[in-house]
Task: inverse folding
């Protein structure tokens, strides 16, 4: 079987959310698995000298319109959150802790976190909320909450974010297919071309 | 007939070049004309606080790879220029001067300028080169060169760039379909959806 696709995302990223709704189906059509890898855009923004899209003059207003229109284009429910962006640290740590035990359950959790934030407007930056979502997925919410302050998990996430940066990841979603980097859900047509006919 | 599509572009923009190779055919499939409108990214970068893609850490290396891959994806010839970015003022003024007389000839000129820079690696920032390209298109190169220092044309371009910014244009390509804004050649699928089935 061909190598898994690496899918880097920030739980606070609208385009990451849209990509998360689409990528496993896309990969499956070409016999690929997807490895979900949470990152922190705040770290990469410091490196690239960028601010969140919505905080940039001119770009800000367009971006919110584009989030909403892109969601309709992909037929994915979306409600621009009142608070944006927010910290995705807690949800990311809980995701990594779940992923160690059960990658499929961790993906269910990740999609539930994204929906809680980008559809239901819940504040996923609160560890209690991020843990409650684990409970709603049939997972152990108390253990998830504990994972958020587990030094081993904290270090695991820190190391993962550093490794992503070292690999050249600077945005969300950021996807590698056989080491070829693709930035943005708008690169899905190129990703599909790459998967279907190989390097071009 | 439906309103023309507004196509804002900078002659120094790789994605603007790719869009320029595609947009008239796309529009024609839906019975639309395209109005080409040169802008200066340097002006909008000052407003949005951005630097050219290729000068940003991490993003720079990816961007050059993405220019080249995107060109292959769209089957458009492309050679990353040795000097990048460059000033597009002279070519833009000559374009506007030509457009007053013959919009179709001005488009032929624009595509020739893009090819000169992004395929043949010529320095289109030089007024003499920009004027020579007009001559190669069967147009009056001496008159084109004169247009570059004509105060009326200079003012026309300045006003056009300010009007673009006032309309919210901050990148290249930037396209309006019936006042709906789309940024990037990667929004062409959404533009096509908008043209074929109306607002979504």
Result:
């Amino acid at each position: 079987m061909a190598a898994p696709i690496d899918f880097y995302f920030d739980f606070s990223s609208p385009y990451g959310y849209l990509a998360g709704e689409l990528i496993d189906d896309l990969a499956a059509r070409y016999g690929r698995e997807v490895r979900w890898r949470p990152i922190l855009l705040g770290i990469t923004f410091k490196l690239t000298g960028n601010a969140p899209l919505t905080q940039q003059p001119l770009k800000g207003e367009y971006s919110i319109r584009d989030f909403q229109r892109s969601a309709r284009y992909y037929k994915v429910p979306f409600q621009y959150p009142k608070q944006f962006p927010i910290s995705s640290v807690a949800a990311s740590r809980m995701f990594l802790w779940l992923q160690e035990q059960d990658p499929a359950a961790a993906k269910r959790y990740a999609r539930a976190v994204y929906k809680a934030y980008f559809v239901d407007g819940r504040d996923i930056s609160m560890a209690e909320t991020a843990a409650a979502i684990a409970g709603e997925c049939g997972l152990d919410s108390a253990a998830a909450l504990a994972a958020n302050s587990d030094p081993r998990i904290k270090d695991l996430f820190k190391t993962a974010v550093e490794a992503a940066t070292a690999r050249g990841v600077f945005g969300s979603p950021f996807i590698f297919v056989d080491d070829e980097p693709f930035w943005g859900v708008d690169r899905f047509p190129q990703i599909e071309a790459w998967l279907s006919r190989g390097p071009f």
Notes: Chain A has a mean pLDDT of 96. Chain A touches chain B at residues 44, 47-51, 56-59, 61-62, 65-66, 69-70, 72-73, 165, 168-171, 181, 183-184, 186-187, 189-190, 193, 200 (CB under 8 Å). Residues 151-167 of chain A form the longest helix (17 residues).
